[in-house]
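During the reporting period the student researcher (J.K.) took over the structure-prediction task from the postdoctoral fellow and processed the backlog of single-chain submissions. One of the processed entries is reproduced below for the supervisory committee.
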Amino acid sequence: MSNHSMKSQFLGSLRNKQTGVRIISVVLFVSVIAFVLYHGTKTPVMFTANGETSKVYTHATTVDELLAAQNIDLTKYDKVSPSLSTKIDSGMSIKWEQAKEVVISVDGSQSKVWTTENVVKNILEEANIEVTEHDLVSQSLDTEVGADNKIDIQKAFQLTLVDGLEKRQVWSTSTTVANFLKQQEIQLDESDRVDKDLEYVITPNDKIAVVRVEKVTDVVEESVDFAIEKKNDSSLLKGKEKVVTEGKKGKVERTYSIVKENGKVVSKKVASEKVLEEPKTEVVSVGTKVVTASVSRSGEPASGKEFYVEATAYTPYCAGCSGISAAGINLRANPELKLIAVDPSIIPLGTKVWVEGYGHAVAGDTGGAIKGNKIDILMPTKSEAYSWGRKKVRIKVLK
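J.K. obtained the following structure tokens:
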């Protein structure tokens, strides 16, 4: 091949290459221009999705188209601001909040709600669920719902709490007696008790009673009664008694173990006893002497202490009479006995006397109405008693 021919081929190849470069340059230039024109015509907006904000450039003409361009699948529970049909303007703010499903349990009964709210209080308000200060909520009302999107509520109810002598109405949720007492800050001492088992689950209108048990020791000094020893005394008229030796009470120190429930003593037992002073026995003489009197028909004695008395007659069968005199004489068995009832401070029992119009007699009886210078004279029959009646007579007390 000649040199001329080779030169022609080289120049042709060079011209082809230059043409290709020009074509590529034109394509790149057009592409850059198109890219610049495409992106330069996009509208900038501020887009907030679930709390995160970014600047977005878009050719979308409405909010709905923008969300579609962002590959967001809307549900009827989501919140979009402004509305989906709103026209896109440069620099506008668009906010999208995705709804989530929250499970709410009220006393074990579950319900599901869709919401864009995050704070527990707002979620419950949106679900029309009212809670009070006494209800137990699994999370604080002012915090955001947990990652498990669950809210557990235990509704409070009223019941009666009796703590010792104090009774009051309180609020509680369904829980055991032990937890309830802890909630109410009720401290139980070792001896205290509750009327229900600590594991018992309380229900509305229940009554929980705490019995306060107090065990105390009481030391007291007490008196001890003395014994009475009676001895027969033949020198003393029958029916009469005379204290020979005065009795004296003793002293003892007793220690009591006392149990109180709600302040009331339910048990009191003697734990120990110590004698401080022994009691002294009282000795009493008991009269056994029976006064006998004989019927005397003799006249007025020459000597004796003489004075006037008011004399009334009575019989062994009078109303209220036992038939036995104060000196122990059986009046009914001795109907002819001469005997008078006296005031022992004026005429001692057993004294022999002479009564004007009655004769010799013995002072062997007493009477409630016989005081001072008064006597009753014994008659065997009512007719004789009525015949005597009441009169002022002279009496002599014989030695």
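The committee noted the following: Residues 34-39, 293-297 have pLDDT under 50 and may be disordered.
J.K. will present the remaining backlog at the next meeting.
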